[in-house]
Amino acid sequence: MSSLFRGTSGTYRVKDIESIVYPTPKQVSPMKATTPATVHFLDGETHTFHIDKHAKGQYLIDLVLDHLDLVERDYFGLQFLEPEYEIAQDLIIWRWLEPHKSLKKQLKGGSPYVLYFRVKFYVSNPCLLHDEFTRYTYFLQLKKDIQEGKLSVPQSMASLLASYVIQSELGDFDPDEHKPGYLSEYKFVPEQGPNFDVKVHELHKQHRGETPADAEYNFLDHCKRLDTYGISLYHAQDANGVDIQLGVTYSGFVVFQNATRLSVFPWTKIIKISFKQKQFFIQIHEESKDYDTLLGFYMLSVRTCKYLWKSCVEHHSFFRMNSTRPLLSRKLSLLSWGSKLR
Q1: pTM of whole model > 0.85?
Q2: DSSP state of 30
Q3: SS3 for 36?
Q4: pLDDT tens track for 5-35
């Protein structure tokens, strides 16, 4: 196993890292196909790729992106579930496939491998993404986030967003084609009833003339304003033992409680991120103060603590240090970014 996850502590010096210049990577060469890997896509389709079990994660990622013909590739990745012993402990953990580690070392469940294609880095304004298919992929991901309850949406906005989904998929409302109950087969939110469908129906009629691209644009424009947009939350406790949730976003580190955002710590104020065992720390510097503040949190497990730390490292690297070249083209490990994890 890589030395990255052998220890139970780690430190990431945010300010020191921003001055580092990274080398240009070498191309990853294809390997002989021997092992099936089934990938689930956001539109519900699946595809099985055949790869060498010793291939690096990047090789499978490239196969998937080539299959989709995505132009703006850096925002996406592949996820898989942790082994069953984690699930048995009621800790269902999703892991991102690491580009520079072999599939065999990461996917412990054996063949066939099962992975899920998803948006990994949510930009601040998905409406400004250059490629239309990239925007559509964000649309599919956010629709799924709402369906699964990952993206919390007020009831009033949920019906509006659902009406944009219907406009995108069905076009203008047509009373001859869209008979009563035409929305019954659609699932928009975790819990929806007849009253919800009635509201979506009324809003759908108001979108006459909107193209699918228009409806998807409006959908993205509303989603980006939500507090939990693009955030995977980790359960934790603060220093007083109060249950909270922690997450990472394009702008920095966030703290939630009961789906309500309590605090946002921008990357510009974060000096260092570290963890030890189940304890997670961020060091904050405020210009108005002569001293730094160290905030500590208690995670549910050592493993989730590591993954939150790693998510911070990846998001900081992508959004604060990605102005000249894409993240996936950099061949370097987290250790070279300043990790002190052993």
Answers
A1: no
A2: P
A3: strand
A4: 456 777 777 766 766 655 655 554 554 657 8
